[in-house]
Design brief:
By secondary structure, the chain is α/β, with parallel strands linked by helices. The chain contains 8 helices and 9 strands. Helix 5 runs parallel beside helix 6.
């Protein structure tokens, strides 16, 4: 049976013969970029989002410190169902279940609309077996892609507002989006807040060039850096038979 990794407990110390509980009052806020996390971690682990224990992961990051108001924030592009498209219906159903569970566990969900963009690819030497495609008359290939818009802006705004309103002491940023650097610089230098960067190092066995690596820029822009390996992240996988949505 799956058991969530236990968070660290407060440390009991003895001073001059008296026992006291040492409580850390540092207020923590977590900003988790769901789309970024999906591509860097979930896909690399070969699992569904619904089979990852986000709450246990958050507990590990907080590590016994005080949780601020709306401590856990999850940012993701919202899936829209397309008429006659069974895949979009399935994706929307899975996302609804994910959001329901996150809400039950105290996550504040911030969504952004997914924008559909049609991209044109010229059939040339970059395309596998392009000569065969040209022989049958294909000169271009059109693909439809869905991209998140404005997630980085939402995270940046929440970082800034939270710092200005003194809602937290330390922001834990679970994102490797370099667009967040200006906001991080401001809250550290102007508001004297601490920032912890959470990165990942997960190999891609099929294509090593696509392996997940931490954003090195974040190392010089944050106070604390933590990089998790695939072995560490697999501890938070919920076995299919124990999934919250079975």
């Amino acid at each position: 049976m799956y058991k969530s990794p236990a968070p660290r407990k407060s440390v009991r110390v003895s001073f001059l013969g008296y026992n006291q509980n040492m409580e850390n009052t540092e207020r923590i806020s977590i900003y988790l970029d769901g789309g970024n996390f999906y591509h860097l971690v979930i896909k690399k682990l070969g699992i569904e989002e619904n089979n990852f224990d986000f709450n246990a992961f958050a507990n590990l990051l907080v590590d016994g410190r005080a949780e601020s108001e709306s401590c856990k924030r999850f940012y993701k592009g919202s899936v829209r169902e397309k008429e006659g498209d069974s895949r979009s219906k399935e994706l929307m159903s899975k996302q609804t279940k994910l959001f329901t569970t996150l809400n039950k566990n105290g996550w504040d969900i911030k969504i952004s609309k997914l924008r559909t963009r049609v991209e044109e690819l010229v059939v040339d030497s970059r395309v596998f077996e392009y000569k065969k495609l040209k022989k049958i008359g294909l000169e271009t290939i059109h693909t439809e892609r869905m991209r998140e818009k404005g997630i980085d802006v939402k995270i940046a705004v929440d970082l800034l507002v939270g710092a200005f309103d003194n809602k937290y002491d330390t922001a834990i940023v679970v994102s490797s989006d370099s667009d967040l650097v200006p906001a991080i610089d401001w809250i550290r230098n102007r508001m004297k807040k601490k920032v912890e960067y959470i990165g990942f190092s997960i190999p891609d066995s099929k294509d090593p060039k696509k392996s997940t690596k931490p954003l090195m820029m974040m190392f010089s822009k944050t106070n604390v850096q933590r990089v998790f390996s695939d072995i560490e992240m697999r501890k938070f996988i919920i076995p299919p038979e124990n999934t919250l949505f079975s």
